[in-house]
Predict the 3D structure of the following.
Amino acid sequence: MRSSLARQLRPLFPGKHNMSEIKNHNKAYWTCQILGWGIYGLLNTVFLSAFQTITAQALGITVFGSVQLLLWTHLLRTIFKKRYWVTLPLWKLFIRVLIADLIIAIISQSIQIFGYLYIDDTLTIEQFRWKLYGLQILNTNFILWIWSLLYVVFHMFDITKRGEREKWELQTAVKEAELMALKAQINPHFLFNSLNNIRALVIENPARARDMISKLSELFRYALQVSNTRSVLLKEELAMVKNYLQLEATQLEDRLRYRFDIAPETRQVEIPPMTVQTLVENAIRHGIAQHPDGGEISIRTTLQQTAMVVCIVNTGQMKNNATPDGIGLQNTRERLRLLFGNTAQLTVENTSQNQVCAKFQVPLTGQQK
């Protein structure tokens, strides 16, 4: 049970390092980096062209500056990730970004000076305009602030979105786990009786024994097929219930009578698997089997405007101190709630002096209305 549960829940938790997600993030990051700093270099070139003729040397310096900033911001991103800066309190993050951006601005502009001196051999360090150098540092620092702000905002948004997704995945996984746990508790109580009856019939009536084996096989095949299914069509559930009743009739013989009154339009409505079977089994165990003369089970379905109603009426009477909340009914009620929320209802009550009605309703989906 535990290994089966783990196998089914594993797809819901791909882990922190989902390779596909990481590749998509990296692709988006490099696209933004190259495009952003490319536009930055282009704007710088346009700005310079308004004041001077663009030479190959000036163009080279501009391109070099853009490539520098691309590499420096990539280093800054690495620091953000390695040091988990995004998870820090805002004031600590602000101080670190302020210092890091200023250091990068100073270093990058210092490298830029040496680039100028290397490209233009007529320019000496004494001729360099140091006020312009200071302005360039402030300008670069401002650009790095903008980059850092965009990076932090993007990651705050990404963390929030990822947290919402993981919360939803966790809720889904919990629901799946609850459903599987509830299904695991719903086992056919008549199994050993059926096997004993088949064993007795093998000699007395081999043909009937084969028929019972076939019905029992179909019943368990259905139970296995729906064990990992959230919902089934009503018609599929009713086919299984007929097999179940025929097997019980072998044990109870004439003491068990049953009939179906199924509205055709309800056959395609989805319900939790084993829901009707559980209520029918409950009706036999606590109703029909308790009467020496047995009784009748009636299964009726009706379609209302926004819901389908299923009624299982059986001969019997709930005692005044009896509770309609046995384990099977609790499980059924809980599975209805997990699948349909509070719009699904299940009630069990006396309808006359010798009849008990178990009734549940499920909301119709858009396609079923």
Confidence is low (pLDDT under 50) at residues 1-17, 184-188. The chain has two domains: 2-183, 191-363.
